[in-house]
Write a structure and sequence with these properties.
The chain is of the alpha+beta class. 38% of the residues lie in helices and 23% in strands.
Length: 134
């Protein structure tokens, strides 16, 4: 049985409140769990000590047994000093998708064509001046 440390949602609509639980990874998000090891209230200020309450002893025990924390819980464990979380890097995150790149190229070509149509080529102007002088 694979065990995970994850968040279980509670609270009413638009007022979330989470329990940090140890559960079978196949059980539903808000379903049965093995043990509750803390709470997380995202509505509290970030510097509030009650925002994340975590039993570090039990978290260490479950990690030693092989429980895998989710990314959000791993952040909490890192702040609590229980388990160090490696920094993640996704350089492609801000890169636009293929369709957006195509649209940008189309816009650029249309803008270049419009600019070319608005400004006549420089080669035609000197020819007109020469005929006026003669």
């Amino acid at each position: 049985m694979s065990v995970s440390i994850r968040l279980s949602r509670g609270g009413s609509k638009k007022r979330p409140y989470y329990r940090i639980v140890v559960a079978n990874s196949r059980s539903p998000r808000d379903g049965a769990f093995i043990e509750k090891i803390g709470t997380y209230n995202p509505l509290l200020a970030k510097d509030d000590e009650k925002r994340v309450v975590l039993d570090a002893e039990r978290a260490k025990h479950w990690l030693s047994v092989g429980a895998q924390p989710t990314d959000r819980v791993a952040r909490f464990l890192d702040v609590a000093g229980v388990k160090e979380r490696p920094a993640r890097n996704n350089p492609k995150k801000a890169e636009p998708g293929d369709k957006a790149k195509e649209r940008a190229e189309e816009r650029a070509t249309k803008a270049a064509e419009a600019a070319a149509a608005a400004n006549p080529p420089a080669a035609e102007e000197p020819a007109a001046e020469e005929t006026a002088e003669a």
